[in-house]
Each structure stands twice: as structure tokens, then as C-alpha cells.
Amino acid sequence: MDARTRQLKASWIPFTGFQLRKAGVQFDAVRVDGDDGRRLADAIEAITAGDPGPIVAEANGRRAVYFYLPPGSTALRAWPSKVTRFNSSYGHVSYVPVPALKGDTWPLSWYVPPTGPDRFVHPLLLLNTAALLLGEGATACQWGDRATDPS
How far is residue 54 from each of residues 10, 69, 105, 113, 121, measured CA to CA in Å? Predict the structure, then answer.
């Protein structure tokens, strides 16, 4: 924790430990497992000059990395196959782990802590970076180019 998170009060972040939060209410999330997730987190952090939005890493198991995005932003987008989306839609509910900002939260920790209660990872920036880094799928920029291309 540093000076920019010391006074942060966001209702979706627990005071101690970690809790599961329903995705699609206060945020959506995507998960990328293992080294791919860490490479993606490093890339997003570099692109945004150190302020990509909240990112959580898991220390055991699949070594998942969770990226927290604005609610409703992960649906209706074609994400690479290595990305797991967490959101809510008709007949579908997802839960995402959220650690406290300080204290014992193992196996979860903030890879990049949140800097504001409504500051999230930018969905199109994450989608494009994931598509390029994970080596599959068209980027959102390419989809836009196709949509305006008359051929």
C-alpha cells in the first residue's frame, strides 16, 4: 500500500482478508492464468505509465491475474481464448475474489492497487493488448477498420 491508496474507500473492497464479489454490479473482471496474466499486467502497467487500474494476482493454483473493469464492459466482446470473463447477464452470475488493501490476504495480493473507487482498467486497452500479447484474435481497432471498410 502506498500514499495513493491509503485513504481509498471503495465499497467493493473488503476491510480485511478477501471476499467474493458479484461481477457486473460494481465491476466486471477478466482473468488470465499464469505467466500470460503477469505479462499482460506488466504490459498494461507500462502502457498506462503505472496507473492501469486495479489488478489482483493469485500466488497459488493457476496463478491467476484478475483485471477489474467497469461494470457491463466485458460482455458482447470477443476476448482471446486464454481470457475468462466475469460478469452478470440473464441466467449467468460470476463471482470474483477481491482482497483488502492491507493485511493478510494470501493467496491474493494487489498487483496494482486501485487509485480511486471508480477507477478501473480500460476495457478496449486491455482487449487490444491481450489480443496482441496472447497472439490470437482481431483487435478492437481492426474490428473498427472492418466496419468502415466498404469492401
Answer: 12, 8, 15, 5, 6
